[in-house]
């Protein structure tokens, strides 16, 4: 499982340990089945230390979710901005998505399952700000491809489902243990399909 990446260098080491321990416990024991004592035992931290940083399990779970989103989005943007050619960028982000889920299955499961849990209300504003920054950056990159006549023009709300819908379905099946394709084959096939779906005719 990937730890918090370089975009989070200011995150204190102890908080990182708590977050990763919580993520493991939530996935193995379930959110309702996890107690703060389980997280302390997994992370080798004291109860006092955990409560010093997080007032409740709900607050900790919300932070786990936000850190997962940050980790995914920062890598996605980094990969996308490496490429100026639309085809190369589309292939890169689809491969990134597939490879990220393979490498971060605990986080992927948590993000898939927990988006609408009650604890998320506390971070809705932060979550919205992260998404705005993310989609603004992605949108700017896509507009260049549209203006160049290489990506077909659609309503903005159509690009995410057209581009990433098949990826999301494949990764959902992956997390349920229902896939057979090899990682590289899946990434290549889905990248090719995504490009065909958005390229200008």
Quick structural overview:
By secondary structure, the chain is mainly alpha-helical.
Structure, explained:
There is one protein chain. By secondary structure, the chain is mainly α. It has one domain: Tetracycline Repressor, domain 2. The protein is 70% helix and 0% strand. It is built from nine helices and no strands. It has helices at 13-29, 36-43, 47-53, 57-80, 86-103, 105-114, 124-147, 159-175, 183-198. Helix 1 packs across helix 4 (57-80), helix 1 crosses helix 6 (105-114) and helix 8 runs antiparallel to helix 9 (183-198). It is elongated and about 60 Å long. The protein starts with 12 loop residues before the first helix and ends with a helix.
């Amino acid at each position: 499982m990937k730890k918090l990446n370089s975009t989070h260098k200011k995150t204190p080491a102890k908080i990182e340990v708590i977050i990763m321990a919580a993520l493991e416990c939530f996935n193995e024991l379930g959110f309702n089945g996890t107690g703060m004592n389980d997280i302390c035992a997994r992370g080798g931290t004291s109860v006092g230390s955990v409560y010093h940083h997080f007032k409740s399990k709900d607050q900790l779970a919300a932070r786990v979710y936000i850190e997962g989103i940050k980790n995914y989005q920062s890598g996605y943007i980094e990969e996308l901005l490496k490429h100026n050619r639309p085809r190369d960028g589309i292939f890169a982000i689809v491969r990134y998505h597939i490879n990220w889920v393979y490498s971060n299955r605990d986080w992927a499961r948590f993000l898939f399952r927990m988006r609408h849990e009650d604890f998320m209300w506390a971070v809705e504003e932060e979550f919205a700000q992260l998404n705005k920054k993310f989609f603004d950056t992605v949108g700017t990159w896509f507009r260049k491809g549209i203006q160049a006549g290489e990506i077909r023009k659609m309503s903005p709300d159509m690009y995410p489902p057209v581009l990433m819908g098949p990826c999301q379905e494949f990764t959902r099946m992956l997390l349920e243990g229902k896939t057979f394709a090899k990682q590289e084959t899946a990434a290549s096939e889905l990248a090719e399909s995504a490009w065909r779906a958005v390229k200008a005719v």
